[in-house]
Structure formats: structure tokens, C-alpha cells
Specification:
single chain; alpha+beta; 5-stranded antiparallel β-sheet; two-stranded antiparallel ribbon; 3 helices; binds zinc ion
Length: about 140
């Protein structure tokens, strides 16, 4: 193995990934500025946020930035990062929200695989924030 190859270890790759994540975070807009989005069934996604895997605290919407796409009819796709100021950690946060009955289903990547979660809510509870605890469980186990 040459000296050059020696430098390209998992540690370097992680640093590079963190740099890319931070660069993206700095240039992208908050998800909050791109919401709400109404799904085909009328369900309104008002808020998308995640939790810090290290300190388990909520990452506030102002520190959740990325892109939201509704290019596929009725499906909201998000590709974002949350930034925990306390841990100085940039947390990848991506997935899709699809209409499911009068509610929605969430698909996210967990250990390299797409995982689907069905979330059943009374029709009156339309806001994403009511399922934040659910999301906390998902995100908390993501790593
Ligand atoms: Zn944290």
C-alpha cells in the first residue's frame, strides 16, 4: 500500500462527508420555508424536523435545511440535514412522505434500507408536529 492510499481511510471519508454536509447546510434553505405541503389526500405536512442522535434533543426547524420535492405527484420527498448546535453535529435527514388513507406514510433510510412507517392519526390532527415523538423513535434508532 502506498503512502497516498494510506491517507484515504474511513476517517478521511467521514471528514469529507461532514464537509459536504456542512457546505450543503450553509447554502440551502430551511424546510420550514418550503412548507406546508398538501398531499394528494389533503393531508398537510406542516413541519419536518429530526432529533440529534448524540444528545437526543429536538433539532429546531430553523436548523433543518435542505430540499423538498413534490415532482412526483402527491409524494413529498425531502433531502435535508439537521444541525445540532450543542454537539456541532450535522445529521442527514431524508425520506418520503406519501398519502395513506386520510393520513400519511413515511419512508426513510435506516441502515442503508428503505423502511416504511404507517402513521394513523385522527383527521383533525393534521400537523406533523403531533407525530414528533414517533419520528423521535425512528430517528433515535437510525444510527
Ligand atoms: Zn446534539
Amino acid at each position: 500500500m502506498s503512502a497516498n492510499q494510506h491517507n484515504i481511510g474511513p476517517h478521511m471519508a467521514a471528514n469529507e462527508a461532514a464537509k459536504v454536509a456542512l457546505t450543503r447546510f450553509a447554502s440551502e434553505s430551511t424546510l420550514a420555508s418550503q412548507l406546508p405541503v398538501k398531499l394528494k389526500n389533503g393531508f398537510e405536512v406542516e413541519e419536518l424536523s429530526t432529533v440529534c442522535p448524540r444528545c437526543k434533543q429536538d433539532i429546531c426547524p430553523e436548523n433543518t435545511r435542505g430540499t423538498i420535492s413534490t415532482a412526483f405527484a402527491g409524494i413529498l420527498m425531502f433531502d435535508a440535514h439537521g444541525f445540532c448546535r450543542q454537539c456541532m453535529l450535522c445529521v442527514p435527514f431524508c425520506g418520503r412522505v406519501k398519502p395513506h388513507g386520510t393520513n400519511f406514510e413515511l419512508e426513510t433510510i435506516k441502515q442503508g434500507k428503505w423502511v416504511r412507517y404507517n402513521v394513523e392519526l385522527p383527521w383533525t390532527l393534521r400537523a406533523w408536529r403531533f407525530v414528533r415523538d414517533q419520528w423521535r423513535k425512528i430517528a433515535g434508532h437510525a444510527r
